[in-house]
Write a structure and sequence with these properties.
- The complex is a heterodimer of chains A (459) and B (286).
- Chain A has 20 helices and 13 strands.
- Chain A is globular.
- The longest helix of chain B has 32 residues.
- In chain B, 74% of the residues lie in helices and 0% in strands.
- Chain B has 286 residues and is mainly α.
- The chains are: A alpha/beta (459), B mainly alpha (286).
- At the A-B interface, helix 1, helix 2, helix 4 and helix 19 of A face helix 1 of B.
Chain lengths: 459, 286
Amino acid sequence: MANRSMLSRRAFLATMTTGFGIALLAACSAPPSPSTPGSAPAGAAAPTSAPAAASGARKQVLFWGRQQFLPESNDYLTESVKLAAQKGGFDVSVQLFTNDEHPQKEVVAMESGVVPDITYTYAPALWNQNGYALEVQALYDEIGKSGGGWLDLADGSSKTSAGKRIAVPMNNEPWFLHLRKDKFAEAGVTLPFKTWDEMIAGFQKVNKPDQGFYAFDGQMTEADWVGNGLPFMWAFGGRLFDKEGNPTINTPQNIAGLKAYTDLLKNKMMPPGVVSQKASGNNEAWLSGQVAAVSNTGSIVLAMRKDNKELLANTYLQAFPSQAKPGTFVEAAGSATLVINQKSANISEAMQIARMILSPERYPTQLEKAGSYWFPIMKNYLSLPFFTQDEWNKEVTENIAPWTLASTADSGLSPIYDDMVISATNDMLQAVAVQGKSPEEAIKILADAAAAAKAKFKL
Amino acid sequence: MFAYLLLLPAGALILVLVGVPFLNALWLSFHKKLLGAVDAPWIGLANYAALLGDAAFWQAFRNTVVFTTGSIGSKLILGLVIALVLNEALPFRGLWRSIVMLPYAMPTLVSVLVWKWMYNDVAGVLNYLVSGAHLSDHQILWLGDPNIAMPAVIAVNVWRGFPFFVITILAGLQTVPQELYDAAKVDGAGVWQRFRQVTWPSILPVVAVTTLFSAILTFNDFSIIWILTQCGPGNATNVLATLTYKIAIPGLELGKGVAVSVLMLPILVLLIVLLNRFISRREEFA
């Protein structure tokens, strides 16, 4: 009993509250400055990556990337990075993450301030927005020269709207229209489609919804929007941004493209399940023989090369015909890029890695190892036998790639675009496809999201 | 004194692992904090004002209420009925009790992915069965129709969660003295009257605690909805937990995302207070 009276419940609670208050103050106090004024180069803070090695010790470099579809492609990329380290006399750790995991890893790394020295990413604008992307114009020029010059796509995939070169492109990942030769032939339709009207008429002829067979599968979600909804807007002459990087979304052209795309569902030319399909949805629809056409990157061709050569032989590839400019075509393309951390203590080593991956000795084999998913982004490699002798690669290289535009081609890399495609494209498409709103009403959702993103990022 | 000293490590742990992150999150909700950005200016209640003026927040709130009440109500009825059946002298009773526990024992990701496949409009077994039984002449969009998607995700939550109700109610049923039933029978009570006058009052505290505990978990449930629909179609299954994630992680607005979580707190606190009250009453009763 005497012991109990030594510390009353009130005193105990007071002690705990004091401790809690101290812990709270510690948690809420300002974090230590990451840099010491004057110690870092202009525009750069102190290193945030692995600590710089002591004098004489080998440097430790961290490389992050996204896993590709083929393991041999990942292995070859890893080998290139390690080869650069071996030649440069430094150590390197290579970490490749899955498609789903990689974007989360990137934002968490930026939030924590512990980021890789060099990363292979699809979100260079985000790295730049948070102050990590090194200006790499000289490296870009040097590598481009070694490959005979960059293709046009490279520019829009690596430069901000302010003109800062923040990334080195690694590839061209074009989207293309996959068409079933047998189904269109049965319907008396000649491929390729040369005009927009020809394409829509062909879709109508081949469409048999009562038999569970549809003309086209395009997701009514954010998934694969870059290769589906966006080229429809482009086909009608629409653009999402002007040359200064300002959103230009609510325009008659973009509305017409959105209407044409969603009308395919409304007119039962798409399977009803597209309203909830994710990225692999149209791959599955195509591979299961449910549709006559899909727009996708090389992942479907890759899958058919491996498991369904018969369907591959029955597949024709082309770009979307333009409605606004008959005789021309439109197609979107993505590009993986290398971003170097400007706060890294190992910038020189990171550059050596970039040079090695994209060197004339390594890059051609890297392209081949990636199958039909990566296409050249530099001129010298367009003539590789891999891209000129294979029927499908040749079609893509010669007739599709020349029409491709980076999704941010007009504005350059922009966090507004990155922000919009997270969910606003989904909300816009769902507004028409699920909630029955008009394209005119739905386009405002995307326009409002762009305006909000512009304010959010103070652009 | 010694007893308080023994409590100190646990108390400190709770403070560091729960108290500090919670207050830090609360602090964050008053800032315009973008994920990855160093600057986070103080904006007071602007995040809350924006949310309360946003139709998407209120839709998520309504969806959360529908999801929670629909799931809990169904789990309670199903769990109670099955527990009553399993409390009887059935052949292979132990086996049945084990089988009932299976959905609860399976990893969430695995079981929900199996459900996703079953719900698939093209290749799913449900549409195969519906079409085989000539119940519909078209594919049912289990996860693609805004009117069906919510019942579909509730069904999966119920399937995963009803064994918890079964096992706890069954445990409660086994504490009801047989003498009470015997006395009721002597007084001429039928099956329904015995349930109403003996069983239900006896198991009510267990049912209440189980329901409240499950309500807290269901109110916060993220994984089932995210795996099945990712809030679609047309945000028809977007609940507060998924809204928090969508705003904070893909949307990069950490402060605003945290504000959604903070707005969920009053309901959660209410549920926790009720739960504690029931537990205290039970302890007093015991």
